[in-house]
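On clarity, I found the account of how folds are encoded harder to follow than it need be. For illustration, here is how one protein appears when written out as sequence plus structure tokens:

:::
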Amino acid sequence: MFHLKVDLLKDNILKALLIFALPILIANIFQQLYNTMDTMIVGNFLGDTSLAAISACGAVYELLMICFRSW
């Protein structure tokens, strides 16, 4: 398994922060791709009302995902 040890106090600050933030960035990219595909599928097959429901619940879903990722 890939393991990279980073000391945020002694290493180069920019390098350490980028390595620290990389998993969060990758997770956010995949989450955005999921949301985009969900919007495309619902918009094409289920109609405007269903798309509005997805959009209305999107903020709540994002909040829950942020809370569960922090555990």
